[in-house]
Structure formats: structure tokens, C-alpha cells
Write the C-alpha cells for this entry.
Amino acid sequence: MAKELMKGNEAIAEAAVKAGCKAFFGYPITPQNQIPEYMSRRMPQIGGAFVQAESEVAAINMVYGAAGAGARVMTSSSSPGISLKQEGISYIACAELPCVIVNIVRSGPGLGGILPSQGDYFQATRGGGHGDYRLIVLAPASVQEAADLVMDGFDLADKYRIPVMVLGDGMIGQMMEPVEFQERPAVELPEKDWAATGWDGKSRDRAIVNSLYIEADVMSEVNKKLKAKYDEIEKNEVRVQNFMTDDADYVIVAFGTIARIAKNAVLKAREQGIKVGLVRPITLWPFPADAVDKISRQVKGMLVVEMNQGQMLEDVRLASEGRVPVAFYGTTGGIIPAPDDIVAELVKMKEGK
């Protein structure tokens, strides 16, 4: 197929359509507004449903309903809007319903600003809402990868009956790049015999979609079942990319669009004689702890670069277990780090400053 020049938000929306999404529920907030705008046009064209809900709270509960009926369904928002969805996301996770949630992160806390940020890492990777639950969290670094991960996200959601979050930022939502939508072979997924699609009283057991368990022992068993699923995901679904790490004395750890900037920093640093590599987590949960553990055994130091005040930093330090120094360089408020700034931090690390 020919490549198309598309804005990241539009590519995310079209990827959802091509993945078989039949329902979209959302509410406008910058910088992700092109996603619902695009879906408002595309959903009627494919016989799907688009609703601009009265609020983010309403939107996520509509997702709950559509997912419970077995539809491929997506919602999108940006940081404060995702915060409002957290109760519903927790309900969806407990009810084991598949869906895709896109967060095009803006700066915060509070209402913040409309410029890009990675400040929602904790929210995304720690569940975000109440109770013991997880989301699969995918972090694209390009418009092409955003489209690919949205399509993968629907398959992962159906495979594990779990909400999947695609965590982007204002840059990836607004930048324009060539994108090609792959015609993929059908993935063999389990039938949705659990979906509440009507009951004739004969052909199958009644399907009940629920997240309310009053008895302590029943609630405990639900949590054990969820934990077993999360363990399986951690075992099978970790995604990570290494760049020039084979001979590296130092590594940068970065995700999303910042990893692209860090990649340029790696090349600049090597021009200065500093052997640097890059570790880029693609799944933020499950976090590639084994990959970080392995690289920490061969380098002299690690530099975590994020557009926040140090969130993934905690996971890197946990995975490296204090074997080597782990430094941090972060920006906030929508300020985007420059490759030269990252190189300067690497020089400090090399010189022991």
C-alpha cells in the first residue's frame, strides 16, 4: 500500500478503523481533538457508532457498555480527561473487558497546558484508578509506530480481555509523517462467548458483565485471576528496542518521541568519542526490566531522559538494582529536550560530575 502523509492523531484514528473498531466514545480536549473529529466522519462510513459524550466520565462508561457487548471499541483523551476516566477504567479492568484507550499527554499537573509531556507515566503504568489492576501500555515513537501499536492494541485487548492504553504525547499527536497501514493476516483470537449479546435461555450460559463482588472470598478470587493474567502478560508481551548497545559504556533509557531525540544524542555523543547506546521501552507495562537488568551489567552508567520529573526513572533504578549510577535529565511544562542537552548530561556522567 502507498504511504500517506498524516498527522499522528489522524493516523491513530484510521488505524483503529482498519483494526475493526466499530464504536468510539469521547469528549474533546487538546491536543488529541483530531482523533474524535476524524472518527466522527469515519464511523458512520463503516456502519459504526460515534458519540461525543457529555463528559469523559460518560464516555468511558459507554466504552464499558460497548465492550461488554463484544464490540471493538476505543476512546481517546488527554491527561485531565484520562484522569476523569479512571473510575470507569478500573471497572472495565475488573470486568475483563477489552478496549483501547489513547492518551495524548499534555503538561500538568492540574489543567496544565496543551504542550507535550510524559507526566502520565505513573498514572498509566500503576493502573491509575482504584484497586489492583493493570493496563497494557504501549509507547510509540513515530506516527507509523502509533498506527501499528493501535492495531496491535486491539488484538492484545481481545487476547487477554484487558484495556490497552496507547500513551503518546502532544508531539506525536500533532506531527505529520508518512504512514502505511499494513494489511495483516487475521490473528487467531478467542471467541467472545462471554459478551452480553442476548440470551435465548438454551444455547449457552447467561453472559454477565460485572465488577461488583460483595463477598470477600469471591473478590479475592477475582484478584487472583487478574494477577495470573498479568503474570502471563509480563512473561509474553514485553517489547523493547536497543540501539548501539553492544559496545556501549553508557546507555540512555527513554520512551516515546523523546527516544527519537535521545537517538540523535547517541550519534552526537559517539562523534565525541563517548560510547553510548539507547534502550527504548515500547511496552511501559509490562516494563522491560530484564532488558534493563542485562544492560546494567555491561555499562558504567545509565541516563534516563523523560519529559517529566523522573517517573520511569524509578523503574530503571529498580531493574538495575544499584549496580551502576543512574542519572536523570528531565524537562517539564512542554519544554522539549535537545540532543545537545542530553549529550552534555552524558559528558557530566562520564566525568563523574
In short: The chain has a mean pLDDT of 96.
